[in-house]
């Protein structure tokens, strides 16, 4: 069986890794113990043969409906069959120092028989594990081991057949059957069976207590809460690293080669996530991430990368996997990401903008944090005249991308403000000169001379949706004539079906073959721009269209095809969800980056 539509997947997470569960009850993606570990179930990027764990009623006509259990990441799927109704409650416990997937079957009415099929394929489907039955009739269990990984599955008696294991169980009203999978290192002793009732209560309390800190009111409240929950799930509980998405190689173009590994910490995406969380009352995560940043960049910012592993690892070399054929045939499947070696001039600006947001929210600087920021500003100065690969990580020619140059402006601007408002030390006059220089340069080289809009890069006559970020960081006012002209050109050239594309790929600027779908985050950026320039009806209408891209449980991938209503790209995507949060704030009259606008 091929993998489901990308929008058919829900996510459960323990804030260290995640499992993707399809509407039909199949876990088709699960890496342990971290997001960026090798997959144990990899059917998402192939078929059942690459690994899956299906649990659903035996009745082929059973109809599922799904929801999350309140403000948590506990997934509840309700199955209605001809013989009865039952629910499956799925979650990953957030505490206890172990990696478990729990699938609790609860009988609601009548009788429902469930069938399960387990196909374990470790190490990106390169290793079929050695499997042994270790339980008894009262407590069935099997242990699967390959290399460093072991998985113990408990709760239903499973029988082997053709490198799979199958079993059935029937529940009546009031019955509860717990099925669990526990990952651990194969050289460690077997963990004890999980107390599922206790773990469920603790996990529900953990999520609801976190959400209780949320500071938000206004339209799209439910979407904002779900998006912030997704951002928290993508933030590693132990290291503080924030991954860009839970998956690798879900295609931006169905059947195409634009398939990238997003299971790492991009400084830009993490900084933007940090801002969204700080703006809504979650300050502790800012301190955690700042500490992560200090560890990752270490002693020499000159060696700074634009992305790292979850604990700050630097070796993320991109390679192609032949063991995973790709999502519905979209190849290649990639692990690692070649962008790790790119120079992207906007990144430091995003980091300094986010750290100022934390400062405004009450996070004090310490002996190391401001020293790091000064060193980052020194790096911006040293690379001032260097072209870059831009926010979209083009694999073509490096250029002077206008958005990157504006983020260099933002970096110097935040350094100046830190000195003038908080008394931080630094060469303020030199920073002011550099800030003025880059602003003048953008006006001269980054604006179309005939039509007056900001251009994608110096000398270009194209626009780019990343230019919508310029007023967000205060480079210009939202109603600046150059910005209004830019919006008009985006509407004319980048919105063929009412959702915003990043840029016109037909120009070949990114150096990658094929096309892509509309970009959800860019669409939310335009909502914010509309709201900030008084186009409230346009903002509300576009927000509704963008939110309609979410699936039935509120999750959003990277891209969307409004004609087929299909999500595309990695899932769920931090950038999409944090942009939704900021757009909702703008509609409520308090855009998330309001504190950073020019005064």
Could you give the topology of this structure?
Elements: E1 9-13, E2 18-22, E3 26-31, E4 39-41, E5 52-57, E6 63-68, E7 75-80, E8 84-91, E9 99-119, H1 122-125, E10 130-133, E11 141-146, E12 149-154, E13 159-161, E14 164-172, E15 176-185, H2 196-211, H3 221-233, E16 265-266, H4 267-278, H5 284-297, E17 307-308, E18 319-321, E19 333-335, H6 347-360, H7 369-382, H8 402-422, H9 428-445, H10 481-493, E20 518-519, H11 520-532, H12 536-547, E21 559-561, E22 566-568, H13 574-587
Antiparallel strand pairs: 1-2, 2-3, 3-4, 3-5, 5-9, 6-7, 7-8, 8-9, 9-14, 9-15, 10-11, 11-12, 12-15, 13-14, 16-17, 18-19, 20-21, 21-22
Helix pairs in contact: 3-13, 4-5, 4-6, 4-13, 6-8, 7-8, 8-9, 11-12, 11-13, 12-13
Largest sheet: 15 strands, antiparallel
Question: Radius of gyration from the CA trace?
Answer: 24 Å
Low-confidence parts lasting 5 or more residues at pLDDT below 50? 594-599
Number of strands: 22
What does this structure look like?
- It contains 13 helices and 22 strands.
- It has 599 residues and is an alpha+beta fold.
- It has a 15-stranded antiparallel β-sheet that branches.
- Strand 3 (26-31) and strand 4 (39-41) form a beta hairpin.
- The model is unreliable at 594-599 (pLDDT under 50).
Provide tags for this entry.
alpha+beta; 13 helices; single chain; 22 strands; 599 residues; disordered C terminus; 30% helix
């Amino acid at each position: 069986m091929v993998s489901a539509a990308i929008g058919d997947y829900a996510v459960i997470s323990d804030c260290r890794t995640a499992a993707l569960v399809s509407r039909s009850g199949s876990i088709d993606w699960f890496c342990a113990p971290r997001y960026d570990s090798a997959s144990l179930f990899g059917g998402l990027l192939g078929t059942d043969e690459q690994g899956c764990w299906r649990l659903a009623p035996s009745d082929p006509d059973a109809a599922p409906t799904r929801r999350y259990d309140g403000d948590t990441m506990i997934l509840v799927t309700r199955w209605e069959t001809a013989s009865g109704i039952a629910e499956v409650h799925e979650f990953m416990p957030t505490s206890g120092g172990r990696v478990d997937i729990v699938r609790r079957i609860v009988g609601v009415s009548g009788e429902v028989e469930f069938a399960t099929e387990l196909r374990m394929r470790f190490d990106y489907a390169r290793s079929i594990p050695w499997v042994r039955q270790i339980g008894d009739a009262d407590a069935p269990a099997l242990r699967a081991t390959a290399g460093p990984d072991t998985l113990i599955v408990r709760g239903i008696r499973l029988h082997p057949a053709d490198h799979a294991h199958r079993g059935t169980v029937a529940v009546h009203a009031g019955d509860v059957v717990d099925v669990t999978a526990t990952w651990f290192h194969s050289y460690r002793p077997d963990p004890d069976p999980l107390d599922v009732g206790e773990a469920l209560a603790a996990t529900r309390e953990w999520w609801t207590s976190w959400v209780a800190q949320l500071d938000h009111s206004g339209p799209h409240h439910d979407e904002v809460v779900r998006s912030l929950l997704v951002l928290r799930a993508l933030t590693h509980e132990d290291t503080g690293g924030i991954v860009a998405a839970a998956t690798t190689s879900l295609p931006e173009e169905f059947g195409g080669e634009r398939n990238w590994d997003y299971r790492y910490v991009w400084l830009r995406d993490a900084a933007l996530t940090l801002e969204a969380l700080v703006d809504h009352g979650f300050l502790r995560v800012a301190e955690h991430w700042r500490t992560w940043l200090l560890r990752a960049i270490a002693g020499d910012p000159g060696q700074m990368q634009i992305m790292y592993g979850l604990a700050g690892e630097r070796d993320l070399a991109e390679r192609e996997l032949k063991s995973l054929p790709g999502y519905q045939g979209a190849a290649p499947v990639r692990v690692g990401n070649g962008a790790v070696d790119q120079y992207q001039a906007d990144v430091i600006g995003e980091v300094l903008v986010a750290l100022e947001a934390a400062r405004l929210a009450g996070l004090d600087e310490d002996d190391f944090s401001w020293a790091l920021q000064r060193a980052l500003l020194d790096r911006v100065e040293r690379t001032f005249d260097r072209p870059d690969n831009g926010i979209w990580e083009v694999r073509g020619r490096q250029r002077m991308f206008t958005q990157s140059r504006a983020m260099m402006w933002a970096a110097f601007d935040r350094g100046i403000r830190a000195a003038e408002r908080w008394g931080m030390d630094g060469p303020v006059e030199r920073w002011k000169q550099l800030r003025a220089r880059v602003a003048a340069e953008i006006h001269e080289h980054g604006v179309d001379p005939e039509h007056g809009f900001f251009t994608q890069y110096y000398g270009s006559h194209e626009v780019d949706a990343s230019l919508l970020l310029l007023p967000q960081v205060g480079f210009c006012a939202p109603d600046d004539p150059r910005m209004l002209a830019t919006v008009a050109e985006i509407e004319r050239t980048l919105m063929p079906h009412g959702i915003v594309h990043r840029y016109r790929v037909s120009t070949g600027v990114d150096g990658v073959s094929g096309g892509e779908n509309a970009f959800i985050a860019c669409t939310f950026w335009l909502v914010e721009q509309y709201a900030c320039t008084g186009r409230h009806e346009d903002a509300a209408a576009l927000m509704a269209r963008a939110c309609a891209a979410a699936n039935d449980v509120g999750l959003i991938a990277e891209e969307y095809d409004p004609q087929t209503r299909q999500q595309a790209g990695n899932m769920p995507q931090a950038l999409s969800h944090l942009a939704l949060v900021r757009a909702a704030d703008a509609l409520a009259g308090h855009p998330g980056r309001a504190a950073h606008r020019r005064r």
